[in-house]
Amino acid sequence: MQKAEKQDRLATGLILGLAGIAALIVISLVAYLLITGLPHVSWHFLTSSAASFTSGGGIFDQLFNSFYLVVLTLAVAVPLALGAAIYLSEYAPQNGWTNALRLAIEVLSSLPSIVIGLFGYLVFVLRWGLDFSLLAGALALTIINLPLLTRACETALQQVPALQRQAGLGLGMPKWQVTLKIVLPQALPGILTGEILSAGRIFGEAAALIYTAGQSTVNVDYTNWNPFAPTSFLNPMRPAETLAVHIWKVNTEGLIPDAAAVSSGAAAVLILTILIFNLSARGLGNYLARRLRK
Q1: Does residue 31 lie in a domain region?
Q2: What are phi and psi of 171, to 5 degrees?
Q3: How many other CB atoms are there within 10 angstroms of residue 127's CB atom?
Q4: Does pLDDT of 30 surpass 80?
């Protein structure tokens, strides 16, 4: 017995040590990015446009494009992912077709984003004639985030107790009403958590957007609310450089004198935004779960 207890303590200590090393690496990386980047972040930096060949530029356009792309991508991806999750969780029979569909979702989640970016360039940009645009970038990011969103929604739906479904069916409700009025409200915390986590991934994506959304930004008119105007900030057909692409571009081109400061500040803003997305997902999920238990 003593030998088994020693082995258990040794294994537990080894696991905790490895987990501590991994956590230390992550915390050190985040701390380094924040320490080196936050001194360069200011109100002027956040609210001014980027400079091409001079120092003192900001990241306002890129920051806005990133948030706008998050909205566009979720508007396309959430209905598709939720529909697929409802089918897999509530309607799909357990057969070879369902297993093949789940395998396809897993394979899609393992594809590198650069491959999906090239696919988006060939299909959305060239074949569909969308050119470099926010819409083409949103469609490419939809492909990237569909597996994550589908799994999150399906898991949330499966966590709803079967007794609640049986109670609704026992009252004479059709299956679609049980799903819509009983299952979905109970699964809402998990679904929203998955959406917010997916938003953080969209915000930090760069590789796929280089080939779809483009690396340049038109002179955006933030006072024009007409989504069909070429320079309107609401026009999804305009090319748009996001914050993550801007960091890559600044470091690779080196055309501005303060490239290191701009990239460090932009990286700090990117890290903080993704942290806010993740903390918001946890906070909102816990809040909704408490409300549903009342």
Answers
A1: no
A2: -80, 0
A3: 9
A4: yes
- HSE, CB side, 13 Å, CA atoms: give it for residue 51: 17
Buried b (16+ CB within 10 A) or exposed e, 51-76: eeeeeebbbbbbbbbbebbbebbbeb
Contacts of residue 114, defined as CB under 8 A and 6 or more positions apart, other chains included, come to 207, 208
Give CA–CA dist 160/167, Å, rounded: 12
Residue 246 has pLDDT above 70, yes or no: yes
Q: Using the 8-state DSSP alphabet, how is residue 257 labeled?
A: T
Number of domains comprising the chain:
1
pTM for this prediction: 0.89
Structure-block tokens of residue 175: 């299956």
| Backbone region of residue 16 per phi and psi (left: phi > 0; alpha: psi in -120 to 50; beta: other values) | alpha
Q: What pLDDT digit, counting tens, does each position of 210-236 carry?
A: 999 988 777 888 888 888 888 888 999
Residue 12 lies in a domain: no
Q: Which residues contact 168 (CB under 8 A, 6 or more apart)?
A: 177, 178, 181, 182
CATH code: domain of residue 230? 1.10.3720.10
| Distance in angstroms (rounded) separating the CA atoms of residues 76 and 71 | 9
Domain limits for position 214 = 61-293
Confidence of residue 50 (pLDDT cuts 50, 70, 90): confident
Is 208 in contact with 137 (CB distance < 8 Å)?
yes
Average pLDDT, rounded, for the chain = 88
Instruction: Cite the DSSP H helix spans in 38-131.
Output: 43-47, 60-86, 96-110, 113-120
H or E segment and range at residue 125: none
Inside any domain, residue 237: yes
How many angstroms separate the Cα of 227 from the Cα of each of 67, 102, 174? Answer: 16, 37, 41
pLDDT value of residue 1 = 56
